[in-house]
């Protein structure tokens, strides 16, 4: 289940905590919940903890560092982060504080990026190499984490942040369900797993996390805390190299496992003759999408990747396939 209309309360700790809280409170006076914006504000707040920032300033150096595009980000996510810090800067400027406001540029324009959809053979090679990646004395669980993590990302269509934030109590081994809490857009949902993936989670827990507490990370880094996306991205690139899958600045990426999951779901449903109009909302809720347009984008991607089912999709949904959704929509 996805909880879309509930305000997610945030606690801020950095030098700008009062300004950020007041800014968020003022935005919510309009009646909107602003959970997605609050998510980015929390990340900004955490970033200020490591910087020498005065409580009434937003320095240019910090803002530009924050605005730099990250390797794993879509253009849409990048643009949303920039919008939030621009609004925060304007809010502080209007109240007489020293704050740098990013100039408006073309970052939020429509992206032509096309995700990589892994073939069945590529997936097989990725999982084989994940099983073989070595552990070290200072990272004894590396093989077990990689073996399960990348299967979970594909098998459940998770965002990498959702998987890395899982705690022990979020894994229901009896019912085969993951609890995804406070994810993107402030939403939470329950994600059923396949019996095979559920059994892998059970074996992993018995082997690696038998003595862990409920609030401990399900995928623990060497220091016992949650893994960083940077560290997992590095591991994934090593797996791609070992699997013989070329990697460039544009991908393939970890997030493409999620795209592949969605496309393969749609492909299977079309071939099984399922009612795609009825199944799209199911896929949307399962993926934790904010609206339907992101899920509809997968229809166009599926048709592009598998021309043999395009006719079936067009018969079922008409021009939603040929026109597609906004390519700038986060998927």
Which terms summarize this structure?
single chain, three-stranded antiparallel beta sheet, two-stranded parallel sheet, 14 helices, 51% helix, disordered C terminus
CATH class of the largest domain, please? Mainly Alpha
Helix proportion: 40-55%
Number of helices: 14
Strand content: under 5%
Taking strands numbered 1, 2, ... along the chain, how are they ordered across the largest sheet?
3-4-5
* CATH architecture type of the largest domain: Orthogonal Bundle
Largest sheet: 3 strands, antiparallel
End-to-end Cα distance:
19 Å
The CATH fourth-level homologous superfamily of the largest domain: Intergrase catalytic core
Rg computed from alpha carbons, rounded to a whole number of angstroms: 21 Å
Question: Which regions are unreliable across 5 or more consecutive residues at pLDDT < 50?
Answer: 106-111, 318-330
What do the pLDDT scores average to? Answer: 85
Question: Strand pairing plus helix content: what structural class?
Answer: mainly alpha
* Total count of strands: 5
Order of helices and strands: HHEHHEHHHEEEHHHHHHH
């Amino acid at each position: 289940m996805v909880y879309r209309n509930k305000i997610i309360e945030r606690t801020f700790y950095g030098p700008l905590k009062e300004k950020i809280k007041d800014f968020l409170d003022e935005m919510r006076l309009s009646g909107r919940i602003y959970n997605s914006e609050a998510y980015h504000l929390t990340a900004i707040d955490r970033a200020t903890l490591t910087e020498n920032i005065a409580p009434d300033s937003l320095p240019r150096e910090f803002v530009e560092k924050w605005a730099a595009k990250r390797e794993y980000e879509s253009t849409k996510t990048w643009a949303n982060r920039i919008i939030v810090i621009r609004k925060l800067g304007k809010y502080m400027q209007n109240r007489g504080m020293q704050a740098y406001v990013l100039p408006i540029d073309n970052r939020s324009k429509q992206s032509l990026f096309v995700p990589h959809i892994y073939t069945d053979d590529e997936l097989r090679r990725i999982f084989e190499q994940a099983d073989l990646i070595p552990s070290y004395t200072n990272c004894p669980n590396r093989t077990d984490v990689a073996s399960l993590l990348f299967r979970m990302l594909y098998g459940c269509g998770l965002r990498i942040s959702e998987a890395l934030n899982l705690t022990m109590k979020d894994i229901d081994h009896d019912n085969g369900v993951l609890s995804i809490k406070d994810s993107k857009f402030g939403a939470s949902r329950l994600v059923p797993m396949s019996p095979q993936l559920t059994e892998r989670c059970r074996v992993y827990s018995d082997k690696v996390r038998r003595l862990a507490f409920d609030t401990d990370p399900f995928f623990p880094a060497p220091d016992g805390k949650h893994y960083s996306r940077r560290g997992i991205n590095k591991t994934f690139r090593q797996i791609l190299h070992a699997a013989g899958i070329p990697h460039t600045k544009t991908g393939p990426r970890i997030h493409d496992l999620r795209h592949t999951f969605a496309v393969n779901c749609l492909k299977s449903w079309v071939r099984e003759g399922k009612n795609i109009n009825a199944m799209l909302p199911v896929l949307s809720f399962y993926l934790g999408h904010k609206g339907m347009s992101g899920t509809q984008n997968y229809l166009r991607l599926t048709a592009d990747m598998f021309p043999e089912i395009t006719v079936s999709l067009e018969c079922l949904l008409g021009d939603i396939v040929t026109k597609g959704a906004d390519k700038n929509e986060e998927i």
